[in-house]
Amino acid sequence: MRDKNNYRENLKTMMIMREFERVIKDLANHGFVDGAVHCYTGEEAIALGVCLNLEDSDYIFSTHRGHGHAIAKGCDLNRIFAELMGKKTGLSGGYGGSMHLFDPAKGLMGGNGIVGGGVTVSLGTAYASKYKKDGRVTVCFFSEGASNEGWCHEAMNMASLWKLPVIFACENNLFAATTPSYKTLSDPDLYKRAYGYGMAGYPADGNDLDDCIEKTAEAVERARSGEGPTFIEFKTYRVEGHCRVIRDLDIFRPKDVVARWAAHDPIKVYSERLIEKGIMTEEDILKLTEEVNSDIESAIAYGKESPLPDTEGFLNKIRERYEI
Q: How far is CA 101 from the centre of its chain?
């Protein structure tokens, strides 16, 4: 488990997540990245706050908006860039792309292009951990939009019934694709749904890293000690549109709401807290920004210089397997 109190590293990781999303859009616009790209901008504290409580051997299941999850779980930045560029050195050999980052060595069990698709699958590793008594914890990330899917409720019921070591990490960013949550949720406090399944459930400030760390630590302890699942609702805000090809939010979002959430930006909140406590100075943060930019530039160069996959060899394997 990483040091939760390595404040400088924590801030750097969130800054890397933020810069990653900024440059990946630029790379996509210039033809280096194909397909849909769903950015995690503004939600960095959730992924990091969760993953700081986990070991490499613990599992996480990501979503279509999963770049931040991969970075927070400790996946190699070079290989993440290479994957989005469709290169052989990528996490999935260049075949998965943005929505299918996969690194089992780090416990990343893959993203999912199906909304809420990872929720039921996460019960597999959770059940295996309970059966083998290996102490591993599974975390499944999903959104408030996914929380309305039927299989999400089926999974929570089963997890609670069997007391599985799984954490349902709901990233309530207030938008399901282009639909605001007030049009889809009968009760805006999603964590209350846990009570109907007899499991622990509570909210967390998804834009406050310290709160995300603290609330997840409690859930991880419950899971490891055999007390069963926990539902954590991380309340946050999706800064960007649904994906780079649908820049929808700026059309109808009230400017005062955008400004209010911008003032509670997770990196801003954490930076100001470190400065206030005397842990870091503004000059320290400027130096950290330079480090982040250097790391990102190096990873981009790695991705660009990496070779393309052997597509013919891949197709031959498919032909052999299915006797085509």
A: 11
- Tens digits of residue pLDDT in 237-289: 998 878 765 555 666 677 888 889 889 999 999 999 999 999 999 999 999 99
**Coil, helix or strand at residue 185:** coil
Q: Give Rg (Cα) of the chain.
A: 19
pTM of the model: 0.93
Question: Which residues, including other chains, have CB under 8 Å from residue 192's CB and lie 6 or more apart?
Answer: 201
Q: Which two tokens stand for residue 317?
A: 């394997």
Question: Which of the 8 DSSP states describes residue 33?
Answer: S
Beta carbons of 292 and 13 less than 8 angstroms apart? no
Sheet holding 166-172, edge to edge: 59-61, 138-143, 166-172, 230-235, 200-205
Element (H, E) at 131: helix 117-132
The single residue listed with the structure tokens 């009570």 is: 195
Q: Are strands 179-180 and 175-176 parallel, antiparallel or unpaired?
A: antiparallel
Q: Which tokens in the block code for residue 215?
A: 């609330």
CA distance 191 to 130: 24
In three-state secondary structure terms, 244 is coil
What does DSSP assign to residue 186? S
